[in-house]
Design a protein that fits this description.
Structural class: alpha/beta
Number of strands: 7
Strand order of the largest sheet: 5-4-3-7-6
Low-confidence stretches: none
Shape: elongated
Radius of gyration: 21 Å
Length: 155
Amino acid sequence: MSNDYVLTPEGKEKLEAELLYLENEKRAEVGERIKIAREFGDISENSEYDDAKNEQGMLEVRIAQINDILANATVVEAPKRSNRVTVGSTVTVDMGGRERVFTIVGGAEANAAEGKISNDSPVGSVLLGSKKGDQLTTEGPTGRKIEITVLNIEH
C-alpha cells in the first residue's frame, strides 16, 4: 500500500465515518450472517456460509485500507485567499466547449460521479497551480489532447 495519500478535511471525516460504521455495525452484521449460516449444517457445501465469509474478507480488507489511508494521509486545506488551484479547490473549466466543475482532491477520495478528481489525474494535475483565464492542454488516458480553459476557482 502507498503512503502518500492526500485528503481534504471533508474526505478525512468521510473515511472516519465509514471506518466507524464498518468496524461497529457492518462487522456485527457479517458475524451474525456467518453464525446463522453455520447453523445450516455442513459448511463444506454451504453457499450462504461461503458468501458471508467472502463478505467478511472484503470488509476486513476495506477496514485495513481505510486505516492505512488515515494513518499515512496528509490533510490539506485549500487556502482561503488564493487565485491559484490547489488541492481542495473547486474549479469551473471549459473543456471543448462544455462547462465542467471539478473539486481537486487526493486519490483516496476521488469520485468522478461526484465531480471529485484526483490531484494525480491528467486533468487534476494540469489544473494544480493554474489561475483564472489559463488555457491548458493535457493528454487523456486514450492519448487524446484535452484543451481546458479555467473559468473560475473557489476555495
